[in-house]
Structure formats: structure tokens, C-alpha cells
Amino acid sequence: MFAPRTHKPATSGDVARLAGVSRATVSFVLNDKQGARISEDTRRRVQLAAEELNYTPNNSARQLRRNGGVEGLLIPAPVLGFGGAMDAAFALIARHSADAGLPTIVHADHDIAGVEGARVWASYRPEAVLVETLRCDAPATEVLRRAGVRALLLMGSHPVPHAPCLVIDQRLYGQRAVESLAAKGHHRLAWLHPADSSIAEFALQRRAGAQEAAARLGLSLNLVSMDADPRSLKDWARGWRDANDRPTAAIAYDDRFAYTAIRALFDTGLSVPRDIAVLGADDYATSSVFLPSVTTIAFNAEDMADLILGTITRMIVGETPPLVSAPPLKVIQRESA
Amino acid sequence: MFAPRTHKPATSGDVARLAGVSRATVSFVLNDKQGARISEDTRRRVQLAAEELNYTPNNSARQLRRNGGVEGLLIPAPVLGFGGAMDAAFALIARHSADAGLPTIVHADHDIAGVEGARVWASYRPEAVLVETLRCDAPATEVLRRAGVRALLLMGSHPVPHAPCLVIDQRLYGQRAVESLAAKGHHRLAWLHPADSSIAEFALQRRAGAQEAAARLGLSLNLVSMDADPRSLKDWARGWRDANDRPTAAIAYDDRFAYTAIRALFDTGLSVPRDIAVLGADDYATSSVFLPSVTTIAFNAEDMADLILGTITRMIVGETPPLVSAPPLKVIQRESA
DNA sequence: ACGCGGTGATAACACGTGTAACCTAGGGCC
DNA sequence: GGCCCTAGGTTACACGTGTTATCACCGCGT
Q: B180-205, pLDDT tens digit by residue?
């Protein structure tokens, strides 16, 4: 299927031949091996030869010899699609992990999970793997562990027994949202539930948190369904004035749905936050310039990055950290609520 | 520095021992090698043993033997930060490339380029590399080529002689923007120039295209500087009414800057598009729900994905495609302009 | 008895690298 | 001279896999 490679890469043997030394010497020089005694003259000859041949060590061979694989952190791509503060945190992780000698590799195949996915990820023999709890059940964990992965960190909304877990309790979002709105004097709230199957699990938990807090504080919480199209909220927005217990604030699943909701309200002649407040979550980049700017609930991206990277590096050196909780959620006060 | 690996991964030798056969037999069975005569009985024994041990082939060793490296497409991470339609295109590429037996790996180290970067990327021995022209000069190209990379595609705003190039001519954005606004009857335009060094090159070219088209069509084009903070446009927005030749439309570098501009105009009491139209670019996800929704100029993400993937696969089988031009830009008509 | 074809499995090499163990020449010291 | 010591290398093995020869066995026909 493939055409033959046009160029065969130079090996350390080629460098050795050109420099007139042994292969071992080449390896010593290029890796700055301490304790190896190499004269300044041959050292220079080797470096020159390597430059001349554009020598690049073969990672596969190197990793094989080191009895390891990709020396770094493997992240399956879907993790990156979370958006908002999470994306920002991952960008920070990618930067800092490279500095810490643990370069990050993203495996961009979206559609694998479970044991099948674990087999693919494990074949790279990474030092560390960061993956969603949902995509990594107990058998998959076992596959990764037996493949020698030193640090396996699962990210999910609830703890699981089979591996160290970074718990990002989704109910806290809902609780915090309700509490924040209650503190501003709102008594009648609406929960805008997203009809998107890919986030169904998270959405249900955020909603549960909101319901729990509303019950505890004695507030009403209407349930409304929506999707990414503003028209899905048209009926609700139109009927809003006639509702006998019309809400004064609406909670969206995240900022993107908040945008959509604000749009839908605007299209029916309502103004945010004058007529109704809208609260988002996850602090998407656009929220600070949206009209109105969107008040949101999120963790601090830098704290999250530090937490994840710190946990992983501690696991790599042998510690077994207990359950880790996400950084505290904070309300980022803007105009919409 | 690292603790010893807790588990040594099972090798094909372990599987062979457990199944009571030779290592070669294991390899034949697990790779479904055609032409190898294996009885149904031993085949089953081998598969059972592999399952029992959670055997995962070592990618490094496999790639070393195959005289290749990462069998896939390597993308340095900064390419993914383009945003908008480009991000959408890359998501499509990641999906389709995996289906085509060319899984995509993203190398998430942002701060490398040139020969240094090329050395790192080349060490993975990928089949294909997709990288920005800016990050890959002639010497870097040579390093990659000599490392056996079969398909090297550079993405940039102008063609370069040293490697196949996907040209995304940034001037077309500016031209198209001006033409589109002219067709709607605008005579006095403003170019909102972003003061962000990371996109300086692109911004200058988009601006040049706009200036060229404005001159050709006999329109005026005011130059205004801005950054990500709406306050950077405060003075301009305030002075807008007093300008003797006040513009009726403003062109932003991309949708994100359009959001900021709309925000700044709103903050000084101006309304978009009633008082002034604002045109964006690159079709960011939020643009369709923004208030007002943002009219934008972008290529079609699916067309771009097909183009890139098609070019790369043709290069891999040996063809040398000529210069490739990006798909045509289209105006996505919304409310802001 | 002997070749012969076919079935089923194996021995052995190659891929490129890192490193522990070993070698050699020269010089100083008794 | 005999001995140790050191600088400056080299030899040889291991890592885990894919694949090409090669081998053992068995039934069959002559």
C-alpha cells in the first residue's frame, strides 16, 4: 500500500563510521554520558559527523532499549473537547509537562474506549495516562496497569475503586449556582437542561445538585429542556411572562448553552439580566465579551493544571495519592446574572 | 528519578511460554499472518494465553522491526490553536485519518520550531507531518526528509520552494471582506488591526488584502488598532460620531476580535449593525448565537479536511502534488454585517 | 525401503539503541 | 622488570517484535 521510504534515516552506526569511531562512542558523546572518558578531539568529530548526516536518534529503538515506551503523558483526544476552563488547564499541562521532562502526546482517535482503547493506548507504553473515568472501566485499567503504566489518573464526576481518581463532582456546579443566585435574592429559578447525549451524564448530575440545593434553601426550580438551537427555547421564552410563578433566573449547563439561552430570550423581546438572569458554567473564552458578559462558575485553570500534573508526577515516583478533589469552584461575576 | 515500573508488561515470549508454543507462532496467530499454517487448536491456545496475560504488543519494538516509527500523522500542537474553521477541520482529520489507517498523533510541545523542533518530531519517525510553514524552514525540512518522513505538508500563507505547501492566502480574507461590504453599499470602512504578536504575520496580510481591494474599488479604509480588551477600542468608538468620514462598517481580524469590537461599540452606546456593521472571519462556534450573530468569512471545514487528508495520502503513496490552494472562502451571512 | 508432498511449528536473524564489562597503551612508582 | 593506575576507547549483549528459512512428522505411492 505504501511507497518505499525515499530516504533511509542515518543511524548511529553511520555516524560512527563517518567519525571513525565505534558506535558506543557515538552514543556516549551524543547523550553526554557522565563517567565516559572521551577526548575533546573525538567528541568534536562525532558531533560534526552527526550534524553532517542530520542524525536523529530513532525513538522506537531508544524506547525499546530503555524498556519503556513514549516517555510522557498520553491523553486520549476526547478529553480535550471539554471546553472552557478544562481546555485552558490542558494547554497549561502540555506546556509544563514538557518542561518537567514528561512531554504530552495526544492520541487523536476519538472513538475508542474500554479494553479496546486501553490496548491501543498501552501499546505506546506511556509513563502516564490521563483519561476520563467513563472511558476506562476496571478491565481497561487492568490492561493499562499490566502494560507498565506508572501513573494512571482517571477524571470523572465520581470516585471509582479500581484506580486513582480526580473527582470533579458535577453536583457542586448545580449547588453553587443555586446558592449564588439565592444570595442575590432570587427565589424562583429555572434549570435549562441540555438534550445532548454526549454530556447527558454530567448534565443529570449538575441538575441533581441544583435540585438538592433548591430544596434545601426552599426555592422553586423549574425544569426546561433545550438544545444548541435557540429555537428550542422559543416556547418557554414566549410563555415566560404568563407563567404564574415565572423564574427570575435561569441556570444553563455551561456558557455555550447560556449564550443560546440569552439569544433565545432576546429573540422574544426579553432582556438579560433585566428581565431574567442567566448563569453559565466553565468560563468559556467568549464569555467576558459576550453581550451581556456571562456570569459563570468554574474552577481556576492554573490550579487544576497544577493539581493534575502534581498528582501524576507523584504517582510516577511511586506514591499512591488518595482520592483527589478538583479545585474549588468560584463564581466569576459578570453581567448576565 | 523514576520509581521502577510496578509491572513488567507481558511479552510475546510470555504468551508463547504459557501457550506452550514458540514465539513465532504467537506472532503468526496474533497478526493473522496469511500463508502461515496454524492448527485451530494451537490458535485458540495462543489467543487464550494472550487474553489471560492481557498481552499488548510493544509499539516501540514493533515499529523498530517494521523499520518505521509512529505509523501515522504527526501534528505539532500549535497548529491546533488556530481556532474556528481550522479547529473543526483538524477534528475531522483526526477522525478520518484513524479510519484510513493513519492515526493522528499530536505532539503537544508548543515552544519548538526549526531544526530543533524537526529533530524532535523526526525522532518519532512518522509517516507524515503536517506543520506550519513558519515553524519549518528549509533546514528543518531537510531533517524531516532525511528522517524518512514520506509526506511533509507545510501550511502557510505563501508558497515556499523547499517542500509541498498548502497555501492559505491570508490576503484573500481581506479582499473578500472588502468586496462583500462594498456589494452591500458600504463606502467607508475600518480595519481593526489586532496587536497580538503571535498572529502579526497573518494580520498584516489580511490587512494588505483589504487595502488592495479598497484601493481597487475606490473605498476608504481607516486603520484602527485594538487588542483583546474592549477598552482598547474605547477612544475610537467614542470618537466615531465626530469623525468627518465615519465608517459604516468595520472588519475584524477574526470572530473573536469581532466580539470584542461589538462589545466596545455597545459600551459606548452604539448598536451593531444599525450604527455600524462588523464583519468577522473564521467562523468560530459562538458566532451563530452571539448578539448580534456575527457575519463571517471562512472556508468549509469539511472541504479543508478532505483536501489535507487527500494530499497527504497521495504523497504517502509516492505522488508529489503541486502547490495546493485552500478551499474557496465563503461569506456566512448573519446579523452583524 | 525410499522419496515426496503437505501440514504444523520453530530457529535464527534483523531492526537501532544504551550500557556494563572489557581491552590497550602509556606513565609513574617500587 | 613488575605492578598498579588512568585515559580513551571498543565488544558484546539486551530490549521485543516480524519474518524467512528450515525442520520434524505423517501418510501415501512405488
A: 999 999 999 999 999 998 889 899 99
DSSP-derived secondary structure for A234-279: HHHHHHGGG-TT--SEEEESSHHHHHHHHHHHHHTT--TTTT-EEE
Q: Residues of B from 64 to 123 whose C-beta is within 7 A of strand C: which are they?
A: 64-65, 67
Task: Output the CA torsion B217→B223→B224→B225 (10° steps).
Answer: 120
pLDDT in tens, A29-58: 999 988 888 999 999 999 999 999 888 888
Q: Is the CB of A28 under 7 A from strand D?
A: yes
Interface contact B7-A148, CB threshold 8 A: yes
Burial class (CB in 10 A: 0-12, 13-18, 19+), A218: exposed
B103 touches chain A (CB under 8 A): yes
pLDDT over threshold 90, residue B219: yes
Whether B9 sits inside 8 A of A148 (CB atoms) is yes
Q: How far apart are CA B55 and CA A191, in angstroms?
A: 47
- Residues A131-178 pLDDT 10s: 989 899 999 998 888 888 888 999 988 899 999 999 999 999 999 999
Quote the CA–CA distance of A234 and A263 in Å, as a whole number.
Answer: 10
Q: What is the distance between the alpha carbons of residues A100 and B142, in angstroms, rounded to a whole number?
A: 29
Q: Record the cell numbers describing residue A275, joined without a space.
A: 428581565
When pLDDT is cut at 50, 70 and 90, the band that residue B68 belongs to is: low
The answer to whether B5 CB sits below 7 Å from nucleic acid chain C is no
Predicted TM-score (pTM) of the model is 0.84
Q: Using the 8-state DSSP alphabet, how is residue A318 labeled? A: T
Tell me the HSE value of A121 on the side-chain side, using a 13 A CA sphere.
Answer: 38
Preceding peptide of B273 cis, ω within 30°? yes
Strand D contacted by A38 CB (< 7 A): yes
